[in-house]
Amino acid sequence: MDIVSHGLWGALAFGRQSRKSFWLAFGIGLAPDLFSFGILWVAASVGLAHKPDFSHGLPPESSIPPYVHHLYDVTHSFVLFLTVFALVWVIAKRPVWELGAWGLHVLVDIPTHSFAFFPTPFLWPLSDWKFDGWPWSQPAILIPNFTVLLLLYGWFLLQQYRPALKPERVRE
Ligand SMILES: [Zn+2]
Q1: Residue 1 CA to ligand 1 centre (angstroms)
Q2: What is the C-alpha separation between 42 and 27, in angstroms, rounded?
Q3: Distance 77 CA to ligand 1 centre (A)
Q4: Burial, 63: exposed, middle or buried (Cβ in 10 Å; 0-12, 13-18, 19+)?
């Protein structure tokens, strides 16, 4: 899925308790792409790397530097997410639910990436098995995705700005 949708889904699913929680979940939702492809974009924009050419569709994976592939394995592993979530739970002595935005990012990517470009390595490092899904860039996925996001955010914002109807709302 595209990076903005990841942030919006993560915040909606795990950041509805407060403004701080919202932005934390939003950032965590972006993080798997930010710390893989995001690094390549930054490197390319300061002239340290070649910007992949998406103008003729998906570029060959071999044109993406190896470090991006390694980072993608780490940031898109559901196994690693579960391990970190459990560790943080033990250390913080409570579940940090906003981290769920990371797990959700990986789950959403599994069906929305095909073998053509970065299928999701969600079982890394235990297994190389990946699912051959449908690219998120096709309108059949993009349009329903943004429509559902729009409807859910409309509902969410309506709840936020009608405090009189929802006095039990958790405040920051
Ligand atoms: Zn991703």
Answers
A1: 6
A2: 17
A3: 10
A4: exposed
How far does residue 6's CA lie from ligand 1's centre (Å)?
8
Residue 46 pLDDT level (bands cut at 50, 70, 90): very high
Q: Where are the domains of the chain?
A: 3-165
Q: 168 CA distance to ligand 1 centroid (A)?
A: 35
pTM of the model: 0.90
